[in-house]
Design goal:
Layout (H helix, E strand, L loop, with lengths): L6 H21 L3 E8 L4 E8 L3 E9 L6 E6 L5 E7 L3 E8 L3 E9 L5 E9 L6 H22 L9
Antiparallel strand pairs: 1-8, 2-7, 3-6, 3-8, 4-5, 4-7
């Protein structure tokens, strides 16, 4: 028996559409992924072209726990936007960029052993998440409201 559109169904639809929209926006952003082996004292780099201004990200995953890798984000003019020493297995960091152009992620292995890295580098496109995140928020609030409306009429037994 079909009961029509309920608050619960609308909330689920808003949350699902907002989540899929957010995933699609992030999937279509400018980013690159690469795997590389860096010997002791050696360096490697990854480049990406970013448009406009916004918040960029880099994700560095390693195959071991005892790392010491220096990671720097450099813009097209040679300015350092971010510089961090990574000592753990997985790291995600963010940086601000103010102009379009080519950005480089430079990694230097400072540890005593060679290291295998998997790198993700790109743009978060946070500006495009406004509508989709609002849909998720409204959907979540409607889910809470639907749950409250469903349960408010139930009486619970209290011990005497």
């Amino acid at each position: 028996m079909y009961k029509g559109l309920t608050i619960f169904r609308i909330a689920l639809a808003l949350t699902a559409v907002g989540s899929i929209w957010t995933g699609a926006v992030f999937a279509s952003s400018a980013k690159t992924s690469q795997e590389m082996d860096i010997d002791k004292g050696a360096s490697g780099s990854v480049q990406v072209i970013l448009q406009g201004k916004g918040i960029g990200f880099y994700q560095v995953l390693s195959d071991q726990y005892d790392n010491l890798v220096l990671v720097k984000v450099v813009d097209g003019h040679g300015n350092y936007l971010s510089s961090r020493t990574i000592t753990n297995k997985e790291t995600v960091n963010y940086f601000l960029f103010n102009q379009p152009g080519q950005y480089t992620l430079e990694m230097t292995n400072l540890s005593q052993n060679p290291v295998h890295l998997t790198i993700g580098f790109g743009d978060t496109r946070y500006q495009d998440f406004g509508i989709s995140s609002s849909m998720i928020l409204v959907g979540a609030c409607l889910l809470v409201l639907a749950g409250y409306m469903k349960l408010r009429g139930y009486i619970t037994a209290h011990p005497e």
